[in-house]
Structure formats: structure tokens, C-alpha cells
Amino acid sequence: MQILPIYLAHGAGVGHKNSDFLQRISQQLGEKGCPVIPVTFAYMQEQEATGKKRPPPRFDTLIPEFADYLSVSDPLIVAGKSMGGRVATQLTSDNRVKGVICFGFPFHPPGKPEKHRLAFLEAVDVPCLIIQGTRDVFGKPTWVLEQKLNKNIEIMWVEGADHDFKTLKKQAITQDEVVSKVASMVKSWLSEKFV
Description:
- Helix content is 33%, strand content 17%.
- The chain is an alpha/beta fold.
- A six-stranded parallel beta sheet has the order 2-1-3-4-5-6.
- The radius of gyration is 16 Å and the shape is globular.
């Protein structure tokens, strides 16, 4: 497998420092030989520094900000949790970007599938992996599987996981086990696509 660095952006409300999922997935991927570089947008850096919640700025301003993080000239992967994944899908015109990984893609606002965000996936012209929980209110299997998606998009499901990859106690699977499963999905996808 060609080792490509993964530039990983956070979701709208929680940055790397405060996201249990982002910390765990970064560690697990690193242990599997997939180096992760965290991407923290300026508004979140300010939120983490002051402790005051801030909404993200206009979406179109986050695209060049993410691009500015890509400091190497070698091939790389862009990734993101929720909103960060949506931003990552808009960077595939950069010839360094060889693939995209989305953890919990926000296909639509909860309960509003008519306001879907499928347009963000239409122009993705590199392999794109979306890992989605079956209980994710931003895109459950019943709705997602009915959509006609770009041929570069591959979706893998995590049974019983929500948008933050948390499961119900009755499923008897720990958060560490879920994250380990997600990291293994990423590793096998990278091995398949980037031999």
C-alpha cells in the first residue's frame, strides 16, 4: 500500500481537541500506518482558545482554508468528519488529492431529506469513501441507498452507529471497538485503492 498522509478536518461544532471520535480515529489510523494530520479551521481554533462557541463561517470560505493546510507537494488524502468531509469533497480538483474519506457525511439536515447535499458529491473525480452509521440522522440507509450517487463514491455502513459513531448499550460494542472497525475499513479501502 502506498502510504498517503490523511488531512483530517473536524465537524461544525467540535474540533480535534474536544472530539473523542477524532482523537481515537487519528490514533488508530496512525497505529495502522496511516498518518493523520489534523486540520482545524480558524473559527474552531478561536473557539478552543476562548471556550466560546462560534458557528462556522460561510461554507465557501472553508474550502480555500482547508486547501492552505495541504503543504506538501506529494499525493495525499483529504478527509473530514461531517462538515469537514463536505469541505474535503470540494478539493478534488487539486491534483495532489488522490482520495477523499468522509466520516458521517451530512447528506441532509436531520428530518429534512428534501434539503439534501448530494450536489457536493457530483464532481468528486477521485475515489471517495463515506463511512456512515446506520442510525445517522444526517443520512440513514433507507434514504441514502435510494439515491443515485457518483460512481467514485463508495459507502460502508457501521451497524447501529449514530452520527458520532456511538452505539446503544444493548449492542454490546464499545466505542473503542467501533473506532477500531472504522479504522480497519479505512485501511482496507486505502490498500485496495492505493496499492
